[in-house]
Amino acid sequence: MTSHDQTDKTGGIGGRKPYRIVGTAVLVAALVLVVVWFRVVRGGQDPASAVETFVARRGPLTISVLEAGTLKAKDPAIIRSSLPRRATIISIIPEGTRVKEGDLLVELDVSTLVDHCLDHKIMVQNAEAAWINAREALVITKSLAQSSVELARLNYEFAQQDLEKYEKGQYPNTLAAAEGKIKLNQEEKEKAGDYLVWSQKLHAEKYLSDTQLQADELSLSRADLNLEVANNDLKLLQEYTYHRQTAQLTSDVNQTKMALERAEARARANIAQAEAHLAAREQEYQHQQEMLARHEDEVSRAKIYAPTDGMVIYATSSQDNGYQNDRRPLADGVDVWDRQELIYLPRSTSTIAEVAVHEANLQKVRVGLPAIVTVDALPGKKLMGTVAKIAPLPDSRSMWMNPDLKIYKTEIALDSNDPSLRSGMNCRAEIIVEQYAEALYVPIQTVQRIGGQSAVHVLDHSGDVAERRIETGLDDNTVVRVVRGLEAGELVVLTPPARAEGGEPGARGAGIRGADTNEMSQQINEKLKAADKPMPQWRGGGTQPKGRAPQKEMERMKEKQVSTPVQGQDKRGPRR
Fold this sequence. Notes:
- The chain has nine helices and 21 strands.
- The strands form four sheets. Strands 2-12-15-14-13-16 form a six-stranded antiparallel barrel.
- The longest helix has 94 residues, at 111-204.
- The protein is of the alpha+beta class.
- Among the domains are: 76-108 and 311-347, no CATH class; 113-300, Helix Hairpins.
- A hairpin with a 3-residue loop joins strand 19 (465-475) and strand 20 (479-484).
């Protein structure tokens, strides 16, 4: 081969190399275009690329209710103003001071009451003098009444005796004397007649003078006249004197009897009037004494002492409601009212968390459930507690601020007596309703109510969205437990169609995600078991008893929780 041929061959090879590089570049570009076309053009036509989904997960799940509140002493001694009137604070012990039993806490202004005490002392003395005067007047009235009654009774008895004396003594004697006088006059007349007969015989025989005869005749006339007078006296005695005297004496008896009755009635009336006057004066005296004692007691209550040892907490500082905060903080010169709470003194170191449970979560919470409490002032520290009390009625103070907001005050007894816990600290409590070591769950906004049942929309491998009926348990305002109807790893649509019952779905804010230590998790399980003990009968309302409701009631509670409109829940904003 000649050198010319070799030159041509080499040059030919070198001339074809650029064409190969260009072809390779064109092929790579074509492949890129194909990939872009598949990912962009075809991707825009794929339904799955435009749907937001969530992978159903299986793992530990804690169903809880997260609420906010404040720490309070478990059993505080409440110091109130005991004056039944408005009073001004003269001095008050500084808040946060630790006091001993008997220390002076508050002194109120009672200068006006002191003046009233002086006035009532004078009134008491005057009332006492009037009472003594009425008491002595009653004694005098009784004495006068007794004297007048005794005198009237004596006159009545004398009148009765006079009547009896006349009828049984004086009249018979007078009658006997009149009859004896008639008899004597008759004898005198007979005797004078006999003398006259003998005198006439002697005068006829001239043995007797005319003068003696006339004397005997006069004696007979006198005896006859005396007899006639005696007969007339007897007739007057029997027919006139006796009847008149008897009527007079009988009238005296009746008059003295009525005088006695009048005297007794007058005595009773005078005594009753005197006794009523005495009772009125005595009541007035006692009333003035009671008023004086009341004012003196109020003066003594102006100084309020500590009933027990503790740290002073002003009531205005622990009251977190809007219309309560309108009151001025306690200080010198502030006016207080009767029964107004002034100071709280904790009797023990035990602390409770008072949280406000919204009515939407009330069916989940019951007495005995465990709770995890975090305090804003102690970051990173979690405290175990137990639901001890649920208010039977919604808080009236919050309803006064917002009639549409109904919350129930719930007390959580803390297991810890940490001295760093103080009343008034803000806290957040996660009430553990259920806890599972392994459970399937999905976001709560993926679940809808369709035809009276819970349902989700599942995205399959072909990119199609299908409706799936499921059975759900309780939710924790973020995720809901799936009992059956769904498998782990399946894709559920986060924004399902809006044709479901109950409105558009929506998410809620998440709470504290359960316990972070095995020891706390074990405590929670023990408290849940204690709270799940069956009760003989569940009545509901007020402070719910320990233990679960009957199965039908629990199913209704679960159904109600899932069917609650999520969009309306979002309007309440972040958790309190």
